[in-house]
TrEMBL record:
Residues 337-409, 429-504 form the ACT-like domain. CDD domains: Thr-dehyd. Signal peptide: none annotated. This is threonine ammonia-lyase.
Length: 515
């Protein structure tokens, strides 16, 4: 579709009107819901594009564009590239219209998105895995376009695609819940932000619209600052639906005028927004879908009393990724910090540390392996109600003369690399236990069952988000007789814990690297 660059906004507004007549052949309007948060802050409304047929807004643009194909173009078929959601939109349109589609997807594309493409497209789609990124998949698709003559359906850099996305803004305007003081719109290639901002500004000229990008994928921000499209050297893939190296040319021309500001959000901030959506609306968002809300939460005080709009643009997230996000967040409303603390390598010192410095905080991760004869450096990830509580821990450590290091975000801690020197062990035993998630459970086990009877040589514990936390504990004894005696004395279940198993000799040898 040819576009006059001098009249692009008017052309886009006109095409959004025309798109009204096409997109609802393929899907239905999605709801706009209020997200209520405790305490002061803005009035937040969420456009639930996760409730569409493909669990994403992308059906709108893809279907609108493919509905414009002439019979001759439809006969040639279509080709596209997508990280997942646009591919589903193309698949839905291909099956509905009876058009063959080849879809190039990056090799790391989540299986849930690939399966959804096949579900929506059936025999009309073919998935071709190509490259490690969206840009590499797009290069392969463009080469296919040249060789085969198929029609390329761009994920965002197309007037009809942007117009299709704009229909979600049309539904917002017609919902009766406006006008809104502000809108926060996520940006990948820019098609969503361009279409939605154009329509919202048409009806509510005073609305303040902020484009939101991930810190490691801010291609639109770079383009607006440079005055032209900029290709990023690297792109963070956590928010995979917006992981685009370079903003689209047409979206850039729109967004540089229709957006009032651009803000970046971090991956942890996006993860927290996913949690807020779950707790507030009982819906699951993919990372890109929660970016707008992440920016709102980041500016919650500044937006107090405002009526704010965000778009939950998709819910196509790999189940395993969802688990990792939940695990990384810990408890809601809690601050966390990872500390490595030096203590003497002798019985009772670990318990003393817990008693003297860690009272009032929750230990959500505990990593330790014996690596020296006279000193130990256990690593704890602590959570408190706020940062002041954790600062209090540091004050206690300093007052009692403990040497400590802040390892928050350390790579070896994240990957749970726990060293253990087998040559320093005499007669070890390893126990797999479940601790009930309540204050004092770990402390009570060490005080009542272990203190004075064995040396702690290994500890691998991580809060699981369940009512229990799982731990693998290594104990070292002066003799086999003392080891066997303690193992016989420990009940399978006690106050705050459950003993799941005592590891056999072969497993212990693998763990310690001994023969």
């Amino acid at each position: 579709m040819e576009v006059d660059p001098t009249d692009l906004p008017r052309s886009l507004r006109q095409e959004i009107l025309f798109a009204r007549e096409r997109v609802y052949r393929f899907g239905q309007a999605t709801p706009l819901e209020r997200l209520k948060l405790p305490g002061p802050g803005p009035e937040i409304w969420v456009k639930r594009e996760d409730r569409s047929a493909i669990k994403s807004y992308k059906w709108r643009g893809a279907c609108n564009r493919m509905a414009l194909l002439t019979p001759q173009e439809a006969q040639r078929g279509v080709v596209t590239a997508s990280a997942g959601n646009h591919a589903q939109g193309v698949a839905l349109a291909a099956r509905t219209l009876g058009i063959k589609a080849r879809i190039y997807m990056p090799l790391p594309t989540p299986k849930v998105k690939q399966a959804a493409v096949l579900h929506h497209g059936g025999e009309f789609v073919e998935i071709i895995s190509s490259g490690d990124s969206y840009d590499e998949a797009m290069q392969a698709a463009r080469e296919d376009e040249k060789q085969s003559g198929a029609i390329y359906v761009h994920a965002y850099d197309d007037l009809a695609v942007m117009a299709g996305q704009g229909t979600l803004a049309d539904e917002i305007v017609l919902s009766g819940h406006g006008p809104f003081d502000a809108a926060y719109l996520q940006i990948g290639g820019g098609g969503l932000a361009a279409g939605v901002s154009t329509w919202l500004k048409t009806y509510w000229p005073e609305i303040h619209i902020t484009g939101v990008e991930g810190i490691g994928q801010a291609s639109m921000k770079a383009a607006i600052e440079a005055g032209h499209e900029v290709a990023l050297d690297q792109v963070d893939l956590f928010c995979d639906g917006t992981a685009v190296r370079q903003a689209g040319s047409l979206p850039f021309q729109i967004c540089r005028d229709s957006l009032d500001s651009i803000e970046t959000v971090s991956n942890p901030e996006v993860g927290q927004a996913i949690r807020v959506l779950w707790e507030g609306l009982r819906c699951i968002s993919e990372p890109s879908g929660a970016m707008g809300l992440a920016a709102v939460l980041k500016n919650r005080e500044k937006l107090d009393g405002k009526r704010v709009l965000v778009v939950l643009c998709g819910a196509n997230i790999d189940f395993l990724k969802l688990g990792l996000i939940a695990q990384s967040l810990g408890s809601a409303g809690q601050s966390s910090r990872t500390l490595q603390v030096q203590i003497p390598e002798r019985p009772g010192t670990m318990l003393n540390l817990l008693d003297s410095c860690f009272s009032g905080v929750n230990i959500v991760d505990f990593q330790y392996g014996k690596t020296a004869e006279n000193e130990a450096w256990p690593i704890f990830t602590l959570q408190g109600a706020d940062s002041a509580v954790l600062d209090g821990v540091l004050t206690k450590l300093n007052a009692q003369g403990f040497d400590w290091r802040d390892l928050t975000g350390a790579v070896d801690v994240s990957f749970r690399s726990i060293p253990l020197r087998s040559d320093l062990l005499e007669h070890p035993a390893f126990l797999r236990l479940d601790f009930y998630e309540r204050p004092g459970a770990l402390h009570d086990f060490l005080a009542q069952r272990i203190q004075g009877k064995a040396n702690l040589c290994y500890f691998n514990y991580q809060q699981s988000g369940e009512r229990i936390g799982r731990a693998l504990i290594g104990l070292d004894f002066p003799s086999t007789a003392e080891r066997d005696a303690l193992l016989q004395q420990i009940p399978n279940q006690g106050e705050g814990y459950r003993l799941c198993e005592v590891l056999d000799d072969a497993t212990c040898q693998r763990l310690t690297g001994s023969n």
